[in-house]
Amino acid sequence: MELPQTKPQLPGDTTLPTSEEALAQLFDYATGEAQYSIEDFFRNPKKSSYQLSPDGQYFSYMGPFERRQNIFIQKIGAAESVRITSEVDRDISWYFWTNDRRIVYLKDNGGDENYQLYAVDIDGKNSKDLTPFEGVRINVIDELEDIEEEIIIGMNQNNPQLFEPYRLNIVTGALTQLAKNENIAEPIDNWMTDHEGKLRIASKVVNGTNTTLLYRDHEGEAFREVLTTDFRESVLPLFFEFDNGSIVYATSNANRDKAVLLRFDMNTGQEVGAPLFEHPEVDVNQLDYSRKRKVLTAVAYNTTKNHFHFLDEERARIQKRLERDLEGYEIFITSLNRDEDKYMIRTYSDRSLGAYYFYDQQSDRLEKISDVSPWIDEQDMAEMHPIQYHSRDGLVIHGYLSLPPGLPPSQLPVIINPHGGPWVRDSWGFNPEVQLLTSRGYAVLQMNYRGSTGYGRAFWEKSFKQWGRQMQDDITDGVEWLIREGIADPKRVAIYGGSYGGYATLAGVTFTPDLYACAVDYVGVSNLFTFLNTIPPYWIPYLEMMYTMVGHPEEDREIMAAASPVLHVDRIKAPLFVIQGANDPRVNIDESDQIVRSLRERGIEVPYMVRYNEGHGFYNEENRFEVYKAMVGFFARHLQPSLNN
Question: How many helices (H) and strands (E) does the chain have?
Answer without folding.
Answer: 12, 35
